[in-house]
Write a structure and sequence with these properties.
The complex is a heterodimer of chains A (145) and B (403). Chain A has 145 residues and is mainly alpha-helical. Chain A is 45% helix and 11% strand. In chain A, α3 (32-45) crosses α4 (87-98) and α4 packs parallel to α7 (134-144). With 403 residues, chain B is of the alpha/beta class. Chain B has 2 domains: 3-25 and 294-402, Alpha-Beta Complex (Aspartate Aminotransferase, domain 1), CATH 3.90.1150.10; 38-291, Aspartate Aminotransferase, domain 2. Chain B has 14 helices and 17 strands. In chain B, β8 (193-197), α8 and β9 (216-220) form a beta-alpha-beta unit. The two termini of chain B are 43 Å apart. The chains are: A mainly alpha (145), B alpha/beta (403). Chain A: This is SufE family protein.
């Protein structure tokens, strides 16, 4: 992540994501339709990035759709922003960010991303053989932190 | 053989995905394989496994005869003139690379290479590389509004006397059919060498290379109910014989010394190294399978299925079809109003529906359609009307969720 222009610090801090809250809402989802509705709702909580930030340097590789990731460190905690032109991808990205947003390097390093996706009932989505870019994104986050 | 018996020959199709029966509509990416193809390959490995063309022993002799028999089968299957005109490659992509590389010495600076705008990247990039090596110029053959090859523009381009014309028989992304007989005849009149990418045609149409009259025709085994890792390069003998080999090494030589090497004659000259023997034997069985299908009836059923698919998609509403014509072969390309093709693909996958969503290795085509990508549903001999209905039901759910 060597991009020069970054969204403002306030934008990073304004994003509130809570993985335990998300887990709860997923526990109540009875079928794939409800799960994916939750995913799309979650995607909406990520602010839309302006065109100036939808640039190649910020692009997540390995994703069939366009997805962009920004990262910053504020007082030793990691904050993220991401966007995608595909709604479900954006929601899946939000799920991933929820696990890391506002956390310390240590918390991120020890967080079991696979276990988290398993619990959400989305095991298959976090796989290098998928073209949704989540695997690459998870790697990028772990590297950044 | 009725349809149920035919479908029962494909073991992969008998499965459910999280409660949904598999609805496989991605045959254009790769076809499923009938059990007899798998059996033929197992039989080779269990009974006859030996390297070919080194027949000092009985096993090698058996393997060689089976391998070479498939060359004869293919000669008949596509109506080539001579068995030496059939070269086994590792796929369509490698076959086109072999031609584009092999022609390097025959192409000079300023020579023109015409490429179908709807071409798969495999029929674009090797020519670009050839152009970079030689200083040749690449020009795309434009498409009409309805995604057909623009024949007026094509004729105008032919007046510049291209050295090479590379066409698709059937577009992989859209399923549109090119009138190759007439296009090739005009290219030849203009003095061009011609190559037809038949990867998406070979499983659906009876291909007669002598009637098409092209110099090269290429296709992959895995899209015609055969195994992966194997392709076929057909070349008109006198032109094929002029290709410099892309891959050199064992088998393709006559004599080797550290001073000089003399290449073998066709077809060995273009088949360096140990070939995919089991796959070739598998392809022989796949052709036997295709040969046993009632060809006219099968073609009619597939065509009816494609038209049914197109009309069901139209009826669903909020669907954009790309290049949908009654004579399309094997595939239908679409987008759901304003929705990202990948989102549509993910939600279809939740319901056991396998389609391809993306740029379909045809980025120039996507650029000409001014889209980032699309979904493609494609069919094979085992696809039923029920598959189409299940797909439409699944897509209706997707539409309800997204719109």
């Amino acid at each position: 992540m060597s991009q020069t222009a970054q969204p403002a610090t306030e934008v990073f801090l304004a994003l509130k994501l809570d993985s335990s809250e998300i887990m709860l809402s997923f526990e109540n989802a009875n079928n794939w339709q409800e799960r994916y509705r939750q995913i799309m709702l979650l995607g909406k909580t990520l602010p839309k990035l302006g065109e100036e930030f939808r640039v190649e340097q910020a692009q997540v590789r390995g994703c069939e759709s366009n997805a962009w990731l920004y990262h910053t460190v504020i007082e030793g905690k990691h904050y993220f922003l991401a966007d995608s032109d595909a709604r479900i991808i954006k929601g899946l990205v939000a799920l991933l960010l929820a696990a890391c947003h506002g956390k310390s390097s240590e918390e991120i390093a020890t967080f079991d991303i696979e276990g988290y996706f398993d619990q959400l009932g989305l095991t298959g989505q976090l796989s290098p053989s998928r073209t949704n870019g989540l695997f690459a994104l998870a790697k990028a986050i772990k590297t950044a932190a | 053989m009725d349809f149920t018996q035919l479908r029962a020959q494909f073991p992969t199709l008998e499965q459910t995905l999280e409660g949904y029966p598999l609805c496989y509509l991605d045959t254009a990416a790769t076809s499923q394989k009938p059990k007899r193809v798998l059996d033929a390959m197992v039989q080779y490995y269990e009974k006859d496994n030996a390297n070919v063309h080194r027949a000092a022993h009985q096993l090698s002799s058996r393997a060689t005869s089976q391998y070479e028999a498939v060359r004869d089968t293919l000669t008949r299957f596509i109506n080539a003139e001579r068995r030496e005109e059939i070269i086994f490659t590792h796929g369509t992509t490698e076959a086109i690379n072999m031609v584009a590389y092999g022609l390097t010495a025959q192409i000079k600076k300023g020579d023109l290479i015409l490429i179908d705008t709807a071409a798969h990247h495999a029929n674009i990039v090797p020519w670009q590389q050839l152009a970079q090596r030689t200083g040749a110029i690449i020009k795309p053959i434009p498409l009409t509004e309805d995604c057909r090859l623009d024949e007026t523009a094509y004729d105008a381009l032919l007046r510049d006397k291209p050295a090479i014309v590379a066409l698709s028989h059937v577009s992989n992304a859209l399923g549109t059919l090119n009138p190759v007989h007439s296009l090739i005849a005009r290219a030849k009149q203009a003095g061009a060498l011609t190559l037809v990418d038949g990867a998406q045609a070979i499983a659906h149409l009876a291909v007669d290379v002598r009637s098409i009259d092209c110099d090269f025709y290429v296709f992959s085994a895995h899209k015609m109910y055969g195994p992966t890792g194997l392709g076929v390069l057909y070349g008109r003998y006198d032109i094929l014989d002029t290709l410099a080999p892309l891959i050199t090494g064992g088998e393709m030589i006559k004599t080797v010394s550290f001073e000089a090497t003399e290449f073998n004659i066709l077809p060995n000259r273009l088949e360096a190294g140990t070939p995919p023997i089991a796959e070739v034997i598998g392809l022989g069985e796949a052709i036997a399978f295709i040969d046993e299908l009632p060809s006219v009836q099968t073609a009619r059923q597939e065509s009816e299925l494609i038209c049914y698919l197109q009309s069901q998609l139209e009826q669903l509403g909020d669907i954009t079809l790309y290049g949908a014509h009654r004579d399309n072969i094997g595939a239908v390309a679409f987008n759901l109003a304003g929705e990202h093709h990948q989102d549509v693909g993910i939600l279809l996958d939740q319901q056991g529906v396998a389609v391809r969503c993306g740029h379909h290795c045809a980025m120039p085509l996507m650029q000409s359609l001014q889209i980032k990508g699309c979904c493609r549903a494609s069919v094979g001999v085992y696809t039923s009307k029920d598959d189409i209905d299940n797909f439409i039901t699944a897509l209706t759910s997707v539409k309800e969720m997204l719109l």
